[in-house]
Structure formats: C-alpha cells, structure tokens
User: What shape does this take?
Amino acid sequence: MDTVIQCFEHRFSCDILRNFIRYDTAYPSGTMLLREVKNEKLRQFFQYTLELKQEFSTNCMSNGLTVELFDLGNEQLKLLNRLADGETAWITDPMYLCAKQLLGISKLLDKQNASLRSAGFNKQKAKGDLEDEKFLEKCVRTIHTSFKLCLNDRNPNACENKKWGVYLFTNLELKIYKMLYNRDMVRNLVKVMDSRVSELPTPENALQLNKAQLVTYYYYMAEYYGCHEIDFERGYEFARKAWLSSRGKGGSQENTIMLLLVPFAMLARKWYPDLQILRAKYPLVAGVYEPVIKCLQNGDLFTFGKWLDLNESFLLRQNLFVAMVMIRELVLLKVLKLSFQFFGSGPIVSLKYVAAAVTKSESHQGVKQVPEEKLDSTECMLANLISKNYIKGYLSHSNRALVVSKTNAFPKLAATHAQGGCP
Assistant: This one.
C-alpha cells in the first residue's frame, strides 16, 4: 500500500497503482491508515476507491452491477480530476484508467436497464427527467472534465504538460458520443481540438507508444470527416493512416477501417481496390463491396440500385449510406463512357443516345423510344456532372447534344488501384 501513496508523492504510475484503482481487483496488501494521509483530496480518493472495491465484491459479483458502483466510480474519477489540477503528465495514466473503468460500468448498467425495460420492468420516466439519463450521459460529463484538464494545462515544461494525454480522453468521448448517436457533440469536440491544434502535441508524438489509441483516433477522425462532414479527402487520409498504422493481420479492426477506406478512396481519389487482392486479404470487406466494384467496372446502375436497397440498413448503421449514394455518380460516369465508345460518334453525342444508355443501365431493359421528360432529366444530370468536373465538355440545349473534350473527356472516372490491395 505504501507504493500507492508513493506514486502520488513522487509522481509516477505503475501496475500497483493501476490495480488499486480497478474495482474488480483484490484489496491491497498491507494496512492503510487513511488518517495518516495528509492530503484531504488524496484521502477521499483512497476512501472512495476502497468503497468501490467493497461494493463490487459485496453486491455485484452475482447480481450484476449496481447504481451505487457507478456513483462510487464517478466520484472516484471526480476526485482524481481534483487531484490532477496542478499535477504533471504522469497523472493522465491513472485518470485514463479511471475514466475507461467508469465507461465500462456505464455501458453495462445501460445494457441492464435496457433489458429490464424490454421485460416490462423499470419503465421509462418522462423525457427530461434527470434521473432517467443514461449512465453514459452522466459518465461523459465527468470524462469531459478530465479532457479539459489536459487540454487547458499551462505547465511551461512541455515534457510535464498534461496535454500529452488529451487524445486518450478524446477517443473515450468520441466513443461515447457514437454510442449515444450524438453527432453534434462529436462536431463540437473536433472543433475544439482543431482550434487548439497549434498548442497540442501531434497525435503521432503523443501516442507513439500506444499504437492502438493512435489507430482509434485516426479511425474516429476518418469517420467524422467522411461520414458526417462529407469531406472525403480528409476522411480518406485519416482512414489510410489508420490502415497503415494497424497490425496488418487482417483482423476485425482492419475490416472496420477498410469499410471506410474503400468508399472514401473511390470518392476522393477515384480508386477502387483489385478484387482478387481484396478477397485474399479482407474477404469480409470484399463480400460487402464486390458488387459495387463490379458495377463501377461495367456501369450497371440497376444492380447498384438493388445492392443499395438491400444494404440500406447496414450502410445507415455504418454511417456510409450518403457516401454510397454519391458513388452512384461514378457508376453513371462509366455508363456514359461506355455509351460514347458504343456509339462511336466522336465528341458530339445526341442526348437521345445518352438517355437511352442510362435508361437501359437503370432497368436492364431495351429502350425503343426516349420520352421528352427523360431528355430533360438527362440534361440536368449531365449539367450536374459537368459542374463537378466529372465531364470535360458542355451541353447544347438547342441541339439536344453533349459535346465533350477530344482528350480525357472523363477525368474522374474510377479505376483500379492494386498496390497492396488497398488505395
């Protein structure tokens, strides 16, 4: 027990302190005389930690976690936050452990409550009642205090500044906001980080000894920019960094990253992976995206639409539905290029031919006559693609024709990128 006290006196973290903090480990050996601890905040921290262990061993071993365990864990982190004010970077390690532990308790209690409600117990109270808050919502407020303590540390000694720990709490908060489906709080947190980027160590430096945390940070940033802000270039860059920094063994972590990386590469760089390599390295991801890649290769709007409908729920859960809808434009570009090659009419193509090609791709049925309204919608569609620089050319409304550049008429047509099987 003396070692735990020495950690605070001499400012270092170790496994003995970490085990003391955990609620599910045994009581520390040796006698702790709380009255001999002179620092009142530290004495309270020790007291609540011991009570936390007692609550778990007495009431939680067989019947699930209790609200009292959450309250004690929450108070444990609050007390450590108070101790951290004025401390150096060493304390971010026990702070993070407390915060992660509190998050684990919160998740389990929310899951228990959801099970009770589904069984007809613990009925939902009126909306707005603070007592009916999810434990995750209570938990994240305390964790945000830890985040602010790191972010706002003014210690002039860069090596001792708690800013080194800010990414640990950023990852925890982003994880909680994702579980709560709270995009606004994700956006607010990222904006705060962006506004202070010049004051913070880079994530690569701060997390150089913790690759798992670095990959997690990259992943959340990729998801934020690509899925929420529709900034596929930044989303692609972060997803690529996450992939390059991951273990390289094709596990579940890499599959999750690749689910973002493949569509972001299509939209940002107009690349898609070689299917043979993707099947070999990431068969689960290949199972999801193989129909999309084939549609990009052959310009099949009908099959792409069926795939989109079939996978709508999955894509919404992964926050990828908007990205995949936008990939339809790349499939459409392939239809246009194939139709130009088929008609072989040089740089000028009648809108009738274009509309017929698009209609056939959308329906898999032959087209005998193109109605006037279809010509109008095709003209609007082409104008949109030209404005995005997907097509180099212009429309002749009076002649109902599309005039394209003789060189590289489709500069943003998606193509395979086989290096390493990944963009």
